[in-house]
Amino acid sequence: MDRFPIADADAASRLGERLASWAALWRAGAPVEVDHVADADAHGHFHWLVRLRGEEKDVVTVWVALRQRSVHVETEVVPAPEIGREALYRYCLVRNADLCGVHLAIGPESALYLVTTMPVDELTEARLDELMAAIVTYVDELYPTMMTMGFAWYRRRAR
């Protein structure tokens, strides 16, 4: 279990500092907000909320959660589909093969998410930068198609 060691008492502080340091670098190129949401929930997880600017989806909200042995990162791409659920889920399974660093998953309320989990110490500023860039890129790529497939009312806006 060396790859996922138990986070020590300072892991939340180090992760918070890493997120703040990364956000300062990212702000130079694009707007970003990082909020420390809660010290520890009932499961002992610490949470941060990262808001990034997207093209297709104006704001991409990413949850970063420090767990006992890992960091879990997720963003909702689209809510639970209203129509074409099976076709949309199939599309997601096929697209998973092309994604790097994250994967598509169905959340408990049937929404579709991009998610990843990694050891705490592997989430360096460089890895965080790669991960957030991948998330914004994939959301921008996936969002219009997923919305069109899952919502009859959705019409892609002109950019």
What layout of secondary structure does this protein have?
Blueprint lengths: L10 H17 L4 E7 L7 E8 L5 E8 L4 E8 L6 H12 L6 E4 L5 E7 L6 H26 L9
Antiparallel strand pairs: 1-2, 2-3, 3-4, 4-6, 5-6
Helix pairs in contact: 1-3
Fold and architecture overview:
By secondary structure, the chain is an alpha+beta fold. The chain has a single domain, classed as Yope Regulator, Chain: A (2-Layer Sandwich). The chain contains 3 helices and 6 strands; from the N terminus they run αββββαββα. Strands 1-2-3-4-6-5 form a 6-stranded antiparallel sheet. Strand 2 (46-53) and strand 3 (59-66) form a beta hairpin. Helix 1 (11-27) packs across helix 3. The protein starts with 10 loop residues before the first helix and ends in a 9-residue tail after the last helix. The mean pLDDT is 87.
Give the structure's gist in a few sentences.
This protein has 159 residues and is α+β, with helices and mostly antiparallel strands.
Quaternary structure: single chain
* Spatial strand order of the main sheet: 1-2-3-4-6-5
Number of domains: 1
- The best one-word shape is globular
Strand content: 25-35%
List keywords for this structure.
Yope Regulator, Chain: A; globular; alpha+beta; 159 residues; 6-stranded antiparallel beta sheet
